[in-house]
Write a structure and sequence with these properties.
The complex is a heterotrimer. Helices cover about 30% and strands about 25% of the residues of chain A. Chain A is built from 18 helices and 34 strands. Chain A has a 5-stranded parallel beta sheet with strand order 10-7-6-18-29. In chain A, strand 21 (about 380-390), helix 12 and strand 22 form a beta-alpha-beta unit. By secondary structure, chain B is an alpha/beta fold. Chain B folds into 2 domains: about 5-120, Up-down Bundle (Glutathione S-transferase Yfyf (Class Pi), Chain A, domain 2), CATH 1.20.1050.140; about 140-285, Rossmann fold. In chain B, about 60% of the residues are buried. By secondary structure, chain C is mainly α. The chains are: A alpha/beta, B alpha/beta, C mainly alpha. Chains B and C meet through helix 2, helix 3, helix 5 and helix 10 of B and helix 6, helix 7, helix 8, helix 9 and helix 11 of C.
Amino acid sequence: MRIGVFICHCGSNIAGTVDVRAVAQAAKGFADVVYASDTMYACSEPGQEGIIQAVREHNLDGVVVASCTPRMHEPTFRRTVERAGLNRYCFEMANIREHVSWIGKDTERNTIKATELVRMAVEKLRRNRPLTPKRFDVTKRVLVVGGGVAGIQAALDCAEGGQEVVLVEREQSIGGKMAKLDKTFPTIDCSSCVLGPKMVDVAQHPKITLHTMAEVESVSGYVGNFQVTIRKKARFVDWEKCTGCGLCMEKCPSRKAPDPFNEYLCTAPTINIPFPQAIPKKAAINPETCIMKQKGKCGLCAKICPVKCIDFDQQDELVTVDVGAIVVATGYDLFDWHKYPQYGQGRYPDVITSLQYERLLSASGPTGGHIKRPSDGKEPKTVVFIQCVGSRDRSVDRPYCSGFCCMYTAKQAILTKDHIPDSQSYVFYMDIRSPGKAYDEFTRRAMEEYGAQYVRGRVAMIYPKGDQLIVRGADTLAGTQVEVAADLVVLAVGVEAARGAAVLGEKLRVVPDQYGFFVESHPKLRPVETNTAGVFLAGACQGPKDIPASVAQGSAAAAKVLALLVKDQLESDPQVSRVTPARCVGCGKCVQTCPFGAIKLVEDRFGNPKAEVVETVCQGCGICTVTCPQGAIQLEHFTDNQILAEVQALCPPRIRVNYAS
Amino acid sequence: MPKVAYYPGCSGQGTSLEYERSTRAVCQAVGLELVDVPDWSCCGSSPAHMVNHVLSAALSARNLDLAHSLGMEVVATPCPSCLTNLRNAAVEMEDEGFRSKVNALLDRPYTGAVDPQSVLQVLVEQVGVDEVARRVTKPLTGLRVACYYGCIMNRPPERMRFDDHENPMAMDRLMEAIGLEVAPFPLKVECCGASFGVPRGDIVMRLSGKLLDAARGLGVDAMVTACPLCQMNLDLRQRQINAALHERFRIPVFYYTQLLGLALDVPRQELGLDRLCVDPRLALGKIKAPAPVQ
Amino acid sequence: MRIYDLATAEQDFIAEVAARSHQDVRTCYQCGNCTAGCPYTFVYDYSVSQIMRLIQLGQQETVLRSKSIWLCGSCQSCTTRCPNRIDVAKIMDVCRHMARERGYATEREVKLFADSFLRSVERHGRAFELGLMVDYVLHSGKVFTDLDLAPTALARRKLPFQPHPIVGRDQVERIFQRFRQGGAHA
């Protein structure tokens, strides 16, 4: 082999603490290396051209670049060597930035380590062989999980782009958190007026199939060819027939069903359509509170239903669908503020969450849009807002900022003044975070035009006195303690990962961070991709996000899906397992351990069982290679020989001399 | 029968003698054996930890060591201030460096691992509210009270590891078990002014005054405490508070053990009700005679 | 108002507070929750969050000469509710220790009462309430302290005239002696 080695300075990132010239000089002495040099930025255009030129001039058939992480630029350099006429797998990368220069300050030792990493790469490259990817067909359909505003946007954009969309939503209606909001910042436009038409578009789009009250049961397959099973929960109503007339809701005698859409401020009829703009506008029965389901009698809804769509015997239904790509848009949930015992833990009915307050403000809410406090229905004159409840607080394991609470609190303070002109709002805040377009001006308006009194400090305790709540906080700007008697206290509860996100993440092989938010492929350059090819992220499932950011990500994820599904075929990664039939004894251990079901047992022409790898399913994880007792399975591009050669390059076997006396 | 070492605390020999005696009587009545720490000395209370933590821990450790020599795992004290000092000493001496500094002050180094608890905790956890209820012979129905726990019995929670730190319920449950109506007192853990009564009486006037005001707002007949210092601030100083704040509070302040004793029908002389400063007779008169037992 | 030169921050002071309290004062982000809950704020000259800030700024003299560190009642409200899990009450305690070691006593009566209490313990092995009150009155000169309470307290036999000496009185005395000889620094 004729190998060329290129040591990157990465400006001063590497060259600052690694003697790159010395590394290049040392590499010239390695086996098969016929050319070695250092280069300022290997990934830049002149850098890549330099590699191509060297390949041609020195007739190279293998290239090593020592630079940054392969996560970043391995694809870049593979394209480079391809342009130079080599197979893209005749290339190796040594990471001397993240693994060397960024973590050590000692130039001499860094240089030694970088040299050793280059030697390892060269030894591996000497055993590489050209690989050619296979091609396979792409299923032109996308699954969107979650029907909040991010999922809706992704679904509509994908459908408009000509792809078939399957949208799965856990709740009875799509719309997510945004459907519960009264108005939106910073424009104070009506949330359901903005979102409603988009929800209708979803219902009417010929390319979109909607499953609500449904969850992803299981996922198999790989980019371009996922098989997804969806569990549609029993709703005890035949939605093919239900017209959403609402007659059953009026007549249902059991009216104490929990009402999650109204944030449990009130109860709902047991057969219910959660809100007037619900999509699909279909009724469903809550079996927990249904007299028929619990006691076996009643059935009033079935009797009065004009289209006879009630089906008390309905069961969960499993639907299987093939898709080529998946968008995860599962959103967020609210921090459980009961973890703060000093706020009453639910003992005081007039301490409510910000989302409950949205329902009190909303015309479709339990009070018809009139602010009435839960305890006695009185209109509050003094409203206290407490920010950062479950945000920026290590003691409850929520050290992060939830991002949009400052803005919605300002909005709620403005709306409070709109609804009750003789009211006074107080907002306890730690810092005001309003970096969006027209955001800071908006918070200023809350103070200057609407007279909200902003108090910089946390609140230590709330306790009742008479029919009011004494809120005791700090005003750190005044440098002392403050107290205010409030009629209503609204907690700006923080954002946390959606319940169930961890389970879904496991099914999709998408990794959650330590707080349960899904991790993107690159924090800057691949914000909607995940490390599982074909699975994309949109909205707050990746981290706290407001509506514009969620919508933008929905569109971004759709763009990625469309770019993927526009191809008729995809290349499979040739770094897959390969069986040497002569060595295989057909024990089947690899079949059992393969997490992807990519290995099957077949009979050879003598009737002997032999393992066979389905190349398009294999993800190249390598578990089978260490399982096989015969060493009959090898992972292409990471064979035992290649790995051992790397180890030997690092720890050359010493000649043992026995100086026995 | 549960058995614990018992550390009465200095105020039990003087200002809160009625707490100390009623505690003993109640524990006997519910079958909790208290074994006195022999020749116990002062834990150092708040003055010691205001001066130095090693000194404070040493004063406490002498008593932990005596409890350890009894072969007991738990030492119970009625006084939250003693409890805080004993518990702080026990926990901080888990650190070897700190322990050796403390031991350098002691005649005999402390090597044990005795766990200091409040008598209230032992009653609730080792005897149980149900067992106390079962032994009630004279339920105190007709009386409405507010339970006040004081600031340090449950705080900080990582250190005290007993009951809720914002809304403790142990005393509430015991008082309900003996037939009392317990009002939800919102300032259960607010400080009464602690030991500032003597050097800065104005602090106690304001802070204890707030507590009395909140109790009055709930329309209770009496307050119930578990702390000698709290009881003294609220009861003995109630007249001072009235003078300072131009108020007319007349709220009797019981130790919870006094009320338990009444319900368990222990001899009246063990309860020292006559030692309370705000006359409790009006409140006690509200107790309805129990229905004749069939 | 006092103007602080940020460059004069006494790093030794910050380090000493941190070392003696085992608390990382840098984690305080000034949310004010300690001040919000502190029942003693009304008598403070610097609120407890300001004390925390002044420690961060290394303003030793301002902190150790403040009234606040003497008037903290160690009620644990700050420690219990701190979102950064700082044991604020312990820091107040440590500041009090440091002030005492430097001979400061901005709240003289508070210091004297603690002294009287500990003298009583040293002498008798236990706190003798009547004795320590007399001791306090003698040292502070505050003759009328709680005189109004005396009839009530005495009538209810709340203040015995005799201490309850213990056998191991000398053991307790030796704890104090060794402490004064510098046997402990923490």
